[in-house]
Design brief:
- The chain is mainly alpha-helical and 171 residues long.
- The strands form two sheets. It has a three-stranded mixed β-sheet with strand order 3-4-5. Strands 1-2 form a two-stranded antiparallel sheet.
- Helix 2 crosses helix 5 and helix 3 crosses helix 5.
- The chain is elongated, with a radius of gyration of 20 Å.
Length: 171
């Protein structure tokens, strides 16, 4: 049986993005470019997530150099379009029996996913772009002034921790 039930795979458009009408209600079998939302080893080991992170690494410097929110948003949307052009979907696991029933997932199906909301996907992509940029900066791939707002946050957190340690030592 076809792994995508309840609507099939997204159809191709000129931009490579999927229209909402062409997205499946649920997915029972993952494809090589499907990106799973969430955390943990099963997510990190998924081939689609590995490919997604490679794409994020490729776009990281563009994201870091983008000076406006609109430019950063355009880069995140380009990541979405690229995944869709590769026939991948951004999926989240269906955890509750109520949601599974509402989406029409057969009772015998153990693992099923549904397409994640666009807003959630864009937030995940932007976070991944920021995280990868910070990793590069911390590993020497960035300049001294890379992500100055993050450096300030890190310094503030460090100062807060030092203050808490001193308070504990004084008690």
């Amino acid at each position: 049986p076809h792994p995508y039930v309840g609507g099939g795979r997204p159809s191709d458009t000129a931009a490579g993005a999927a229209s909402a009408a062409s997205l499946p209600q649920f997915v029972t079998e993952l494809q090589p470019n499907d990106v799973l939302m969430g955390r943990g080893a099963p997510i990190c080991d998924n081939q689609g997530n590995i490919r997604f992170l490679q794409l994020v690494r490729e776009k990281c410097s563009d994201y870091k150099q983008a000076s406006t929110r609109r430019a950063k948003d355009a880069i995140a949307r380009l990541v979405v379009s690229t995944i869709h052009a590769r026939h991948g979907l951004f999926l989240r696991k269906i955890d509750s029996p109520e949601e599974a029933s509402a989406l029409g997932v057969p009772h015998h199906v153990v693992d099923a996913w549904t397409v994640a909301q666009d807003r959630t996907v864009l937030l995940k992509i932007k976070q991944a772009l920021r995280d990868r940029g910070l990793e590069e900066a911390k590993q020497g791939g960035g300049t001294e002034d890379s992500y100055p707002h993050q450096q300030r946050e890190d310094e503030e957190k460090s100062q807060l921790r030092q203050g808490q340690q001193q308070e504990t030592a004084e008690v």
